[in-house]
Amino acid sequence: xxxxxxxxxxxxxxxxxxxxxxxxxxxxxxxxxxxxxxxxxxxxxxxxxxxxxxxxxxxxxxxxxxxxxxxxxxxxxxxxxxxxxxxxxxxxxxxxxxxxxxxxxxxxxxxxxxxxxxxxxxxxxxxxxxxxxxxxxxxxxxxxxxxxxxxxxxxxxxxxxxxxxxxxxxxxxxxxxxxxxxxxxxxx
Length: 188
Fold this sequence. Notes:
This protein is an alpha+beta fold. The protein has six helices and four strands. The chain has helices at 15-20, 31-37, 56-66, 79-85, 90-109, 112-149, and strands spanning 153-158, 161-166, 175-180, 183-187. It has a four-stranded antiparallel sheet with strand order 2-1-3-4, with no helix packed on it. α5 (90-109) runs antiparallel to α6 (112-149). It is rod-shaped. It starts with 14 loop residues before the first helix and ends with a strand.
């Protein structure tokens, strides 16, 4: 799996063996380098179909070490704060300043036109904030709906067999099978 690194000390290899390995970045490594980095995956570099994958015990151990393969959702912003953030916009701030100046002009000079301009500007600012809040809410609902269409199960090679497991139980070193029609892809 990309962007996940092994812990400082592995149970099967000592810390001196890990530090002796050349530094690698998995997304840019060759198959041979990945096989060396994850020897417990038992990757057959000459024929991926014969790869044995992690043992069930090793996968369970790595699940305990790394935890579940899930993203923690960001904290939700309260609705009232999300509404107020709509007004954190330079253009709307200028309109609010103009409205306040128009209302001050009405109070100081009694010009009724200044009162009308100030009220209209405040209504425009409020309606723009409401519309932005509504549109942002629709976008957030759309983003939340993407989590419902994500695959919850996937196929991996473990103990030399193709198993269907929950995506949350994937661990570093798993060989993931991705199949599209008659083609297949191996993600290491």
